[in-house]
From TrEMBL:
It comes from Mesobacillus campisalis. Signal peptide: none annotated. Residues 72-261 form the DUF3388 domain. It holds the Pfam family DUF3388. This is DUF3388 domain-containing protein. InterPro entries: ACT-like_dom_sf (IPR045865), DUF3388 (IPR024514), UCP021288_ACT (IPR016784).
Length: 263
């Protein structure tokens, strides 16, 4: 029988030498393999483990719950956030009310790129929105994640290097494995109907689409925030307010004025 992966997270109640060794020995006695282990925030550890059957996990949980040195927080099939936590040693911040909204600050660009790359690797339609102020690193993070996911990225609308507004794609650009990047402000403020026909065509494709400034995008289109599978917020620092008046002002430039924008 093929082994199944599980995620174990526990909080240390009594920190004493040899505690991790005790956990490792217990897993060894139950014939459960450790894939990865890391500290998760302060006072917690997370492990990815491999077990032959569910009975091993039931026995493990029963024994762990008798130990006064630790408290089991999670023992489940791993979710993407669990894998990221073990890989990077911290959890991705998630909105308490809107479970599809994830928050990052600029110091966490490595974590953000890794997270998006895992999303990009998943097959089929996926619509991802990314919010953030100018020059925070939104587009660069999307491009870097595309490289990590081995995806070809295409700007449908953008201001990264110069103003880009595409009205059509060539044949080899129509591919379900491509990743399409749309700037919600550029598309809604400066595009023509031919561009919108292309956007609608891309939105119907079973591929990954990333929309920067999704709130502006949905204000001016038939799409809604509910159509998005994930919303990512990127800030320079915790508590920064994403103010769209300022963002839109930075987009108000002439066709010859391309420099200095990092959206």
């Amino acid at each position: 029988m093929e082994k199944k992966e599980w995620y174990l997270e526990y909080e240390i109640q009594i920190n004493r030498p040899g505690l991790l060794g005790d956990i490792s020995s217990l897993l060894g006695m139950l014939a459960i393999n450790i894939v990865t282990i890391n500290g998760i925030d302060e006072g917690r550890r997370g492990l990815l483990i491999l077990a032959k059957n569910d009975e091993q996990i039931v026995r493990l949980e029963s024994i762990l719950n008798t130990m006064d040195t630790i408290k089991v927080i999670k023992l489940r099939e791993p979710k993407l956030r669990d894998r990221m936590a073990v890989r990077h040693g911290r959890y991705i911040q998630r909105d308490a009310d809107d479970k599809k909204t994830f928050r990052f600050v600029r110091d966490e660009l490595g974590l953000l790129v890794d997270f998006m790359a895992e999303l990009f690797k998943q097959e089929g339609h996926k619509l991802i929105g990314i919010r953030g102020m100018p020059r925070v690193g939104k587009t660069e993070s999307v491009v870097a994640a595309s490289v990590c996911a081995n995806k070809r990225w295409l700007f449908v609308s953008s201001t990264l290097l110069k103003q880009t507004i595409r009205n059509q794609l060539i044949d080899d650009e129509y591919h379900t494995d491509n990743l399409y990047i749309i700037d919600g402000i550029v598309s809604t403020r400066r595009a023509n109907e031919r561009h919108w026909q292309l956007v609608r065509e891309i939105m119907r494709m079973p591929s990954v689409k990333v929309v920067e400034h999704p709130d502006i995008f949905v204000q001016n289109t038939e799409y809604t925030i509910n159509d998005f599978d994930y919303i990512i917020e990127l800030r320079h620092e915790q508590g920064e307010e994403i103010v769209y008046d300022m963002v839109q002002q930075n987009h108000m430039f002439t066709d010859s004025d391309f420099g200095g924008f990092d959206f």
